[in-house]
Amino acid sequence: MKSLSKESILGLVTLGVIILMSMIAPGFLDLGNIYNMMFQLPEFGLLTLGMMVIIITGGIDLSITYVAALSGVIMAIMISSGVFLPFAILVGVLVALACGSLNGFIVSKIGVSPILVTLGTMVLFEGVILSITKGTSISGFPAAYNLIGNGYIGGVVPLSIIIFAAFAILTAVLLNKTEWGRQVYMLGSNPVATLFSGVNNSRVLMKVYLYGALLAAVAAIIMTSRYNSAKVDLGSSYLLQSVAAAVLGGTEIQGGYGKVIGTIYAVIIFQVLSNGLNLLGVDSSLVTVIMGAILIFVLTLNFATHTFRNKKQVAGQA
After folding, report:
1. Among 98, 86, 60, which Cα is nearest to 145's?
2. What digits encode the pLDDT tens for the residues 37-84?
């Protein structure tokens, strides 16, 4: 009998968590609460997808939420000043891509460790935002912009969910159906072998960090639209959660493996858990502790599984 994949097991866990919360959390299945979760999920999901793609290469991007925040602040300034809406959004996306290219250049061309690079750029981007905003929030957007994060398609499905679904499908296609996607997995599995097979590792890495920045920019558009404001900590709470969700979704922290569907399941699990615990009256600080514990547990389990698999392969070759 064929064993279930990691993603199939995670799908069953997702279903179980939803059933559990619907039974113990008061008002969990209320229409208003369901829509609340549907509006929160896309921004978290987009940042997690961006993190997942980068982790597949064996890297990490600790600056991803600040890329989103800087992009959002620039867009917010331009939109609140009356700049043509599509142009303001385009500039915001270009700012995010510039941030991604900086990360990608230092990681791929200079060869500095991704965790060190993105830790540095995280502080850099935060400083730039603070110098621009002086620590205040920027608000006052037109109704057309607010529809992106708060509007519905057909009066039923949130527009932001449609945007997230489109980028989830795009990410899956890019990873599974394109040469670049195959190279991303190869690079994460064995960068030396990938290099000797004729793949330009630097170019692959640069595109990975650019794509992560693009998803951060889209998340920024949704967040600024939904909150009707932008500030330095825009989306900052999603940083460690995005790492945890990517790893919980089956992405190997050492690189080489990761699936979009598993990441989506993990995002749903985190969203449902967070929402359900809030409905149960659990203190928000304790919710953060629980999320941190989940991250530590998943990373430990992931590492133990990886170590066991390597030992098994070595024993099989002996």
Report:
1. 86
2. 999 999 999 999 999 999 999 999 999 999 999 999 999 999 999 889
Structural domain includes residue 261: no
Q: Quick check: 212 and 61 in contact, CB under 8 A?
A: yes
- Domain assignment present for 136: yes
295 lies in a domain?
Answer: no
Taking only Cα atoms into account, the Rg of the chain, rounded to an integer number of angstroms, comes to 20
Number of domains in the chain: 1
Q: What's the pTM?
A: 0.92
What range does the domain containing 148 cover? 37-235
The DSSP annotation for 74-125 comes to HHHHHHHTT--HHHHHHHHHHHHHHHHHHHHHIIIII---HHHHHHHHHHHH
Provide the pLDDT for residue 1: 45
User: How far apart are the C-alpha atoms of 143 and 161, rounded to whole Å?
Assistant: 19
- 222 found inside a domain: yes
